[in-house]
Amino acid sequence: MSIFVPMRDQAVSVSELTYAIKGLLEEGIGDVLVSGEISNFKEHSSGHRYFTLKDADAQIGAVMWRTRSLTFRPEDGMRVVVRGRLSVYPPQGKYQIDCSAMRPEGVGDLHRAFEQLREALRVRGLFDADRKKPIPHRPRSVGIATSQTGAALQDMLSTIHRRFPLLDVVFRPTLVQGEGAAEDIARAIAELDAAKLDVLIIGRGGGSLEDLWSFNTEAVAMAIANARTPVISAVGHETDVTIADFVADARAETPTAAAVMVTPITVDDLLEALDARQQDMTRTMCDRMEDMLQLAESFVDGRAARRVTERIHLRQQRVDELVSRSSRAVRHHTTFLKQHIDHTALYLTSLHPLAPLRRGFAVIERNGIVLAPSDHVQPGDTLTVQRFTESSTVNVQSVSDPTILPPPTPHHGNESEIPNA
Amino acid sequence: MATKAKSQTLEDKLKRLEEVASLLDRGEAPIDEQLAMYEEGMRLAQECRTYLEEAELKVRRLSGEPDESDD
CA 20 to 30 Å from A399, out of A32, A174, A420, B22? Predict the structure, then answer.
């Protein structure tokens, strides 16, 4: 089996044996994922970290080079999971784990690491209120970074669809837990930031502190801090708090709540506003018709009244066209206006000087001017009497009190009150 | 007077609608112009309404992880 069997006569050198062991261990075992407790942790002045991983019955040396990033400060007694390669160091005849990544494992250790990172970032000013960018009042576009398969994505998309489907949504699928998730989320934030959207949402559904761990890393915290786009953090449920929540410009309690934050104005709000606007405009036009009535009442000149009547008829026609062309919602408003204009026309027709003439009344003029009710007639005046079919000139012989009661003075304001001309 | 471009966005239309409504409210224009504004306002409101009622959510996708790029 082996070339190193004791029965073999020829001795090998220590180096030969060591390199044979190195080959066996490094190729035979290679990549490892090991859980254990840290002891003898030392950070050398070079920045490299040396420590021992142990459990109740065994221990193994470990090294983590300066270039490998750590998301927390390891301490003796902490339970961690390290990823790395088994390697042999021939000068000392020692084997050790060359660690590429390390994360705390126990719940207590996760909490400790969380507090450490939170404090470090706080000192660097990443949570300062004056760093927070405002969430736009009416975003047109949103970038979403979350798992493609999670409920969080469906919750957000269905909420946006229901509230404001006009929002431009850009989705960047990401890992949200496990190896490489923190780095992937950080990359996703940078990519979405480069897409120049109005606001970003990063998040995932609820989970254990370990599940949410990616959002408690320096990589994600820095990506949020470096983004020029406002970021909303929507991780887990109401009670879950992550480092991402502290760095983000706003925190949403759930992914659905984040979707509500980016759709502050809904389609229903806009439809309601449009309806109110149409009602306002119709009411205003009705008011204008009222104004025209009052204006028409003040006319004594028959030709002017006739012009107003013609204009009202033109308007009736245009509103008729508008009503027939428009949809039901608009018709509801314009029909109201049309009735109002019809009514105005009816009233103005009754004001028209020709209308009473047809019924036997006459217009009396003196020196070409229509006599107003307040004008007085003197014996000897020459008057012109305009009737429907003829005009005559008469001389006044005598003046006395009226023998018939005058009609009540027309008062505008009540639509049913059409005066007797 | 704003030009009535065919490719007016919803935003443009809402803005013009507000403009027309406030002009109408001021009531300084001759009555015929006011009626034309009323007509324009009602048309704009109706176009916005139709647009909003027919809106569908569109989601654009950035590639992300290679093992998820199945679209």
Answer: A420
